[in-house]
Design brief:
This protein is of the alpha/beta class and about 160 residues long. It has a five-stranded parallel beta sheet with strand order 3-2-1-4-5, sandwiched between helices. It is built from five helices and five strands, in the order βαβαβαβααβ. The chain has helices at about 15-30, 55-80, 95-105, 120-125, 130-135, and strands at about 5-10, 35-45, 85-90, 110-115, 140-145.
Length: about 160
């Protein structure tokens, strides 16, 4: 029996690794005639210690995230995916990706980049990917390679041509 994934969640954080996860998520959604949900989480804990915190800061982060997600949405549609949507969530990325989104959208596969953090950030706040793989109630695919299954090293990322 072949496993089919109908509701696929991909976490987008702007990193090279999340871009690879997004590209592979499109391929999986197309193969399974599934629906692709993209999520970008604004980690509100990052704003807790900002003394001059104001809503303009959150609005700026949200606007940047919206532009990024719209770009990914168009890329998915250009690739032939019909059932695709995105959301921008606020809170702790770990629980939103591992628990909240899967419940809300009946997710059966989460695709996530190996890491979007550097070593110091992982040490201090822990890896979102690690948490998701340990706590999600559905299958999790950690993307470590590009579409040609070559190791995904940010240092080998080819710059995109400018238009």
């Amino acid at each position: 029996m072949l496993q089919q994934y109908k509701h696929i969640l991909v976490a987008i954080d702007g990193s090279y690794e999340s871009e690879l996860a997004f590209e592979k998520a499109i391929a999986v959604a197309k193969r399974n005639d599934g629906e692709l949900f993209m999520v970008h989480t604004v980690d509100t804990r990052a704003f807790q210690n900002v003394s001059s915190f104001d809503s303009a800061m959150v609005e700026q982060v949200t606007e940047t995230a919206k532009q990024t997600m719209e770009k990914y949405m168009q890329q998915a549609k250009d690739a032939g995916l019909q059932k695709v949507s995105y959301t921008i969530e606020y809170g702790a990325p770990k629980t939103i990706i591992a628990r909240d989104m899967p419940k809300q959208h009946n997710i059966d596969l989460i695709m996530i980049g190996a890491t979007g953090l550097n070593a110091v950030e992982r040490l201090l706040i822990g890896s979102v990917t690690e948490y998701v793989t340990r706590n999600a109630t559905c299958d999790v695919l950690v993307v470590r390679t590009d579409l040609q299954n070559q190791p995904a090293l940010a240092s080998t990322k080819k710059p995109k041509p400018t238009k």
